[in-house]
What we know:
Elements: H1 3-9, H2 12-23, H3 28-38, E1 45-49, H4 56-69, E2 74-78, H5 86-92, H6 95-98, E3 103-107, H7 116-123, E4 132-137, H8 143-147, E5 155-159, H9 165-174, H10 179-189, H11 193-205, H12 217-227, H13 234-245, H14 251-257, H15 262-270, E6 275-278, E7 281-284, H16 286-299, H17 301-321, H18 327-336, E8 356-360, H19 366-377, H20 379-391, E9 396-401, E10 407-416, H21 421-426, H22 428-440, E11 448-456, H23 465-480, E12 484-492, H24 496-504, E13 508-509, E14 515-516, E15 519-527, H25 533-546, H26 564-576, H27 581-585, H28 593-596, H29 603-617, H30 625-636, H31 642-649, H32 653-677
Parallel strand pairs: 1-4, 1-5, 2-3, 3-4, 11-12
Antiparallel strand pairs: 6-7, 8-9, 9-10, 10-11, 12-15, 13-15, 14-15
Helix pairs in contact: 3-4, 10-11, 12-16, 13-15, 13-16, 14-15, 14-17, 16-17, 17-18, 18-23, 19-20, 26-32, 29-30, 30-31, 30-32, 31-32
Amino acid sequence: MSSGSTNKSGLLGWRLQAARQMAFLGREEELAVFHAALYGGGCSVLYVHGPGGIGKSALLRWFAHEAAVAGRPVSAVDGRTVEPSPAAFEAEAELVLGDADAVLLVDDFDRVQGLEGWLRERFLPRVPMGVLVVIAGRYPPDMRWQADPGWAGALEVLPLRDLRAGDAQALLDSCGVAAELREPLLAFAGGHPLALLLGAAVAVKDGGASRRWKPNQDVVATLLDQLVGELPSAAHRHALEICAHAHMTTEDLLRAALPQDAGRLFGWLRRLPFVESSSLGLFPHDMVRELLEADLRWRDPEGYAVMHDRMHAHLAERVRTASDADVLGAVAALLYLHRGNGASADFHRCRDEGEFQEEVLRQEDVGTLLRVAATAEGAASAGCAAFWAERQPEAFRLYRRTETGEPVAFSAWLRLAELDEQELAADPIVAQAWVHARATTPLRAGEHLAVCRLWVLPPYRGNSPVMDLIQWRVIGNCLRAERMAWSYIAIQRPNKAWVEHLRRYGMRNISDQPRLGDDVYTLFVHDWRAVPVQAWLERMNHLLVDGCADGPSAATAELAVLSQAEFAEAVRKALRQLSRLDALAASPLTRTRLIAERAGQDPAAALGDLLRQAIDDLREDPRSVKFHRALSVTFLRGASTQELAAEHLGLPFTTYRRHLTAGIERLCADLWHRELYGTNAPAYRST
C-alpha cells in the first residue's frame, strides 16, 4: 500500500492531534515544571488553574504527549463526564493506584470541585511514589493544600496566564491571518488563546475585514459561555457586569449599584477564576471585561445606561469626599467609566505600576521647581514659578519618576479671589485670566477663580502618564471646589489635538493670548456658574453614550450669571408678573442656579412656585411677619392698587410702603443667598 493510501486510511484522531500540536505555542515555563516532575526531579502533584479558554486542556494534551514519549502510561479523568463521586472518580483513575510510573491528568476539575477535600485527604495519599498527577481547573486550590506542611514539597501550583505577545502573534500567523488584521485581533484578544483562535477564524472567513475589525455577537456569545459559563442568578450576572464596567470594584461600589446582597455577591466575585484582587479592589480579566461590556450594551442598552448612571453618581461623590491623597485614584475611577467613547482614552491607564508619583511641594523642592521650570519653559516662566511658590506653596504639586526619583513636572492650582498690583505685574498669564473674568462676568461676593500653571519637561508632554496625573488633579480640584467661578488652564503652543480634547470637556480657548518672554500661551477657560459641576458630569455621561459633546442633551443649558444688582432687579420684575406664566418664562431668573436645582419642572412654573414659597417662608421669622403680610397681599392676593393693599392690611400707606420695600429687599437677599450657596445652604438671616 502506498504512503498516500496509508494517510487516507489513517484515523481522523491522528489528524486532529497533529493540528492541535501545530497550534500549541509557548508555555515554556509550565512545560519545564512538568518535565522536572515527569523525570523525577520535581513535585508529585501539579495544580494548573486559569479562566476558561486560557489553554488548560491544550496544555494537558501536550502533557499527555510528553508522558507517552517518556514511555509512561497515561490515565485521564474528564470532569465534564465523570460522576462527581469518590467511587466514580476512583474507577476512572484506578491505574495510578497500582503503577508507580503512571501519569494521571484531571481536566475540568471545577466540574467536580466538591471532591477536592477527598482527593487531597483520601485519594492522593494512596498513590505510589513516582506517580505524577496533574489537576487542571478554573479555580485555584483550596488554601488548605498550602497550609499543610505535608504538601509543601509535593504540590506545585501553576496559574495559567495569557500567551506572551510573540506567541500570540505566532498563533495568528499559523491561522493564516492577514497582516492588516493582526493589530485589531491582538487588541481584542490580547494573549487569550481561545479568543485568538475564534477571532482568527471569523476574521479569515470575512474577506472584507479590515483594521476596524471587531468580534460579532456570535464570537462574543461563544467566548462568554466558555469564560463565564452559567451564572447562578440575574443578580450574579449584574454584579459581574458592574465589575466589568468599573476600573476596580469594591463592596461599597457594588452596594451603590446593586444594594441587595452586596456583601455576598462581592465574596462570590472574588472567588471567580477570571477575577483578580488588588489593594484597590477586584478587577476581571481584560477579555472578560470587554466581552461583558460589549454584550450588555448590545443586549440591554437601557439597563447598561441605568447601571452606568448609578456607578457614575457614586464615583463622582467619592471624588468630592476623598482625602487629598486619594483624589487621583478617585478621578481615575470616575473617568474610567468613559473609556469607550474615544474622548478620554488618555485618562484610563491603570496606575498600578506606579511609574510616576505626585507629591506636595516642600521648601527644599523649590530649587528643583525652578530648574524644571527653566528647562521646560525658560527663565521668564521660572520667575513666575518662584513668585507663586513663595505666595501659594500649597498650590504646587511635584511629579517624580518612581524608579529614579527624577523630577519631571510641576503643576500649580492658583486660587485667586483678588489680585494686587504686584501679582498682576509678576505673571502676565494670571493677569490675562483676571482681565478676562472681570470683562466677562466678574466674581461675586465669596467667589474665586483658579489658574492652572504647568511646567513639564519636553519628553513628558502630550499623551503621557505624567499628563494623566496632572489632568486628574485638575479635574479633582474642579469637582471639589467651593464657590469657584472660573477655572483657567494655560498651555504653551497647544496643538490641534489638545484644543479638541479640552473643548470636549467644556474648556474653550479665549482669543487674547498672553506672552511670557518670547513664548505665547493659550488660556482655556470654563465658567462653573454657567455650567456647574452637575451639568459638566451630565456632559460626560452624554459623551459615554454618543461620543459627542454637542446636541441638546449634551449638558444642561448654560446658566445665566447675574450680578447682585441684576438679580435683584429680575426678582422685582418677576414679583410684578407673578400671575403671568408667559412673562415669567422670559425672566433671566429661569436660567439661574435657583431654577436649575428644580430639575424636571417647567422653568416658568418653577420660578412662580419659588417666589410664592419664599414669601411664605418669611412667616417663620417673627421679625419678618410684617414683610410677609405686605408681600402676600400685594403679589399673591392680587390687590389692584397699593392703596387698596394698605387699606386691606389696615396700615397707613407710608407704613405699608416701608414694609413692602423692606420685604422685597429681604426676599432679594434670601434668594441671592440661595443662588450663591445652593438651596441646601443655611437660610439667610438679616442682621
